[in-house]
Amino acid sequence: MPRRIMKLMRAILGDRLFVYLMKQTFYGHFVAGEDRIRIVPTLTRLRSFGVKPILDYSVEEDLSQEEAEKREVEASVSSAGTNLSEDSADSLPQYSVDKTFADRRYKVQSARTYFYLNEATCERNMETFLECLDAVKGATFGTGITAIKLTALGRPQLLLQVSEVIMQARRYMMDLAGSTGNILTHHKTIQDLERYLGNVSDKAEVKQFLEKVTSDKDGILHLFPWTGIINEDCQLSETFRVPDPVTGQMRRLISKIPPKEEEMFRNMIRRLNTIVKTAQDLDVRIMIDAEQTYFQPAISRITLEMMRKYNTEKAIVFNTYQCYLKDTYKEVCTDLEQAKRQNFYFGAKLVRGAYIEQERARAAALGYEDPTNPSFEATTEMYHKTLTECLRRIRILKDANIDPKKIAIMVASHNEDTVRFAIEKMQEIGIHPEDKVICFGQLLGMCDYITFPLGQAGYSAYKYIPYGPVNEVLPYLSRRAQENKGVLQKIKKEKRLLLSEITKRLAKGQLFYKPKGKYVPI
């Protein structure tokens, strides 16, 4: 039921009849209710079967393609000009805006998209997320989760620029390390960096740079002081500079950012800090969704620093990893290594991913390497490999009498084979449901035959729960209706099970029978 058909139905039936019809059908199946009060019966019923919620207030703007493109282009270019680094020959095309792909909904059905309008809108988004946290706390006895997107909290241009800086920093270290990859994986020391800089390392500005490099006994973790960045007290233009090994002059990895946009970045970090601090105070967890690869280096870096700041006693902040990407296994291993070296609790949600068709089309059009795996099977292999590594490291923690909850993983998948693989690997490696380190998640209205048995068997099981007024969640509902053929294939078994259940109920005269659970979520 595409969006235009829904709009046509509303025009023909009128608002009242349309809303009633949606509540009895599509909306009633995929959405829990209109507000935090009306969702309680759904949450209570799920809880009775051992299933916990991930709440998401799914109201979206119903923008035209033209309006979405206009907003994105305006919000993705600095008022100072291009986002690219000062030497255009070294710029990375992946991290620049392109009008063809400015509507980030292009080829994306299963993910919500925020388009920046102004700072006031970002403030309202923050308030919505805070209300969501309060709803989770009030209705789930402290076992719930809220999902958020970083693009809802700030100007996308800033995420593009920070993402490019991170990749430029990796390029800079490549000359020193002789290989590619995340900086901390090279295990290079401050002394190695000094030797690389040679005679220019005695210069005052170079010394100041070296003093701010984050390192430990195993080597350099970060070239830049990310602690200051997430504490809202830095100037990006001055922070992201590295010394030229030949001249010793400090070279910016980011174009000059005007003071107003520096303030916008600090506002974005302030909003995220406010949300995560509230989650910590309410004992609720936060899952920060993955987005497109041109935003993701910045999103992951900021999320990891939020973990370092707030995940000191338990996993409150979770990052999301899309397994259709070629580098997912390496990125997860790198982030696990950072968590270990900086002694914080690591939380991860593993998904197949929502943007694969858009990513492939964008890479082909802009001329950079396709970041995605070549096939569904390769993505499955990546998912299973990454999950196995996480389970292996959890087992190492258990064997060393270290809290195994230092690593917490959500297996977010509607694929029955992947869920079965996870359970079998848990048994093989010796990780039990009561360890509370692995949980499972599916969308409300999909794959109940997976979620409910997991909850009843004592596994930590979640449903992703959208809620919001009928007319305002139509964009969400239209995406659910346009899910790709793969999802439709996956629910064939569910339709067969539902038909079987309806037949049984008709035979027993119990068509409107509602089972009652007596389970307690772990």
From TrEMBL:
The protein's annotated pathway: Amino-acid degradation; L-proline degradation into L-glutamate; L-glutamate from L-proline: step 1/2
Protein name: Proline dehydrogenase
Record's function text: Converts proline to delta-1-pyrroline-5-carboxylate.
GO cellular component, one term: mitochondrion
Family assignment from sequence similarity: Belongs to the proline oxidase family.
Species classification: Eukaryota, Metazoa, Ecdysozoa, Arthropoda, Hexapoda
Keywords: FAD, Flavoprotein, Oxidoreductase, Proline metabolism
GO MF annotation list: FAD binding; proline dehydrogenase activity
Catalyzed reactions: L-proline + a quinone = (S)-1-pyrroline-5-carboxylate + a quinol + H(+)
UniProt domain Proline dehydrogenase: residue ranges: 42-491
GO biological process terms, semicolon-separated: L-proline catabolic process to L-glutamate
Organism: Anopheles coluzzii (African malaria mosquito)
Family annotation (InterPro entries): FAD-linked_oxidoreductase-like, Proline_DH_dom, Proline_oxidase
Entry EC number(s): 1.5.5.2
